[in-house]
């Protein structure tokens, strides 16, 4: 599979008065064509900032460093004008919540059409074209009575229908890469299942890569091909979804999985440190039950096993040994 997106050593800091608060630190990962990469991690770890950096949506007080390549072209440093040709058609995002992203005074068909350059204000032929495409996407997303729904106002739709309208807004321009930030955050349990199902169906039917940002490990493991785990502005582990779920290597990933209701609800102790008070050494060290003396003094790098699994943890520094021998690996965690 071809690489669609390649992020190399991305740093993002925010200027807060005279203070320079570093948030993202050396983030590197790839997204391949037609794959779903989920980014998980607890609140405030930098998932949305990463998505905003890709979409050129960071606020003015953000300072960035590093590179982001989309189909081999560097896009992080592109001017707004040059980036415009990527937004929508190449890289698009699904708005976060119906209540903040849908205009209550406008019929939803028109709002979806606005996501294509020119919207309904285009020539008649194009307008009809867009209309047909909206019907097509609505029926694809199993929005019953798609023609009628185009003329409905947001308050006339159920929660599940509104969520699907938002997804339509992301996919109407047929992007190659779709960024979906926290699709299940504000929705209840029944709706969550529905959103997960729609996304899973989209993954199978539409040919685009997807970056799914969520703190919901359950949703991530149901939809994603690979999962990247972030902690306090750093990527700490990345690998195939089933391997991350069934054989987590980083102690933080293991903690997140143990906290899942299906795995016993063992909630991790402690809190993520604040970005302005980071101590030397591994950022997870203060909460880590496997912490070694050196973890408090030195920052571990990302170690790679040669099969695409990366772990930022000294326990896997001698990856040749730790990765090749399952018994040693078990020993590390079960000791
Ligand atoms: N404009 C900004 N100015 C200053 N700090 C910011 C700004 N935007 C985000 N941050 C900080 O960056 C950090 C990462 O935020 P981000 O929104 O990426 O977290 P997240 O992982 O998406 O969390 P959540 O799961 O709650 O959405 C947070 O500490 C946040 O306060
Ligand atoms: Ni977020």
TrEMBL record:
Membrane topology: Peripheral membrane protein
The protein's name: Nickel import system ATP-binding protein NikD
Keyword ATP-binding: yes
GO terms of biological process kind: peptide transport
GO molecular function: ABC-type nickel transporter activity; ATP binding; ATP hydrolysis activity
InterPro entries for this protein: AAA+_ATPase, ABC_Ni/Peptide_Import, ABC_transporter-like_ATP-bd, ABC_transporter-like_CS, Oligopep_ABC_C, P-loop_NTPase
Span of the signal peptide: none
């Amino acid at each position: 599979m071809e690489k669609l997106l390649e992020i190399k050593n991305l740093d993002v800091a925010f200027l807060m008065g005279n203070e320079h608060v570093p948030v993202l630190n050396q983030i590197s990962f790839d997204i391949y064509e037609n794959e779903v990469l989920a980014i998980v991690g607890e609140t405030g770890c930098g998932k949305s900032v990463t998505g905003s950096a890709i979409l050129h949506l960071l606020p003015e007080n953000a300072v960035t460093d590093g590179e982001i390549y989309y189909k081999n072209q560097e896009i992080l440093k592109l001017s707004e004008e040059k980036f415009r040709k990527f937004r929508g058609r190449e890289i698009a995002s699904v708005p976060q919540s119906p209540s903040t992203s849908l205009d209550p005074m406008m019929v939803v068909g028109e709002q979806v059409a606005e996501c294509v350059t020119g919207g309904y204000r285009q020539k008649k032929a194009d307008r009809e074209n867009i209309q047909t495409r909206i019907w097509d996407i609505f029926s694809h997303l199993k929005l019953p009575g798609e023609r009628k729904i185009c003329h409905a106002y947001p308050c006339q739709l159920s929660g599940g229908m509104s969520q699907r309208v938002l997804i339509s807004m992301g996919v109407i321009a047929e992007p190659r890469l779709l960024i979906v930030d926290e699709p299940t955050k504000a929705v209840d349990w029944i709706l969550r299942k529905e959103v997960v199902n729609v996304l899973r169906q989209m993954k199978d039917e539409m040919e685009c890569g997807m970056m799914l940002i969520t703190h919901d490990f359950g949703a991530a493991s149901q939809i994603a091909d690979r999962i990247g785990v972030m902690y306090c502005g750093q990527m700490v582990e990345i690998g195939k979804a089933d391997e991350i779920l069934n054989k987590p290597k980083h102690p933080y990933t293991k903690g997140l999985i143990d906290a899942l209701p299906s795995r016993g609800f063992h909630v991790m102790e402690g809190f993520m440190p604040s970005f302005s008070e980071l101590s030397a050494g591994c950022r997870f060290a203060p909460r880590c039950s496997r912490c070694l003396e050196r973890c408090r003094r030195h920052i571990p790098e990302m170690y790679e096993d040669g099969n695409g699994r990366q772990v930022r943890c000294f326990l896997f520094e001698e990856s040749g040994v730790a990765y090749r021998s399952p018994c040693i690996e078990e020993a590390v965690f079960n000791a």
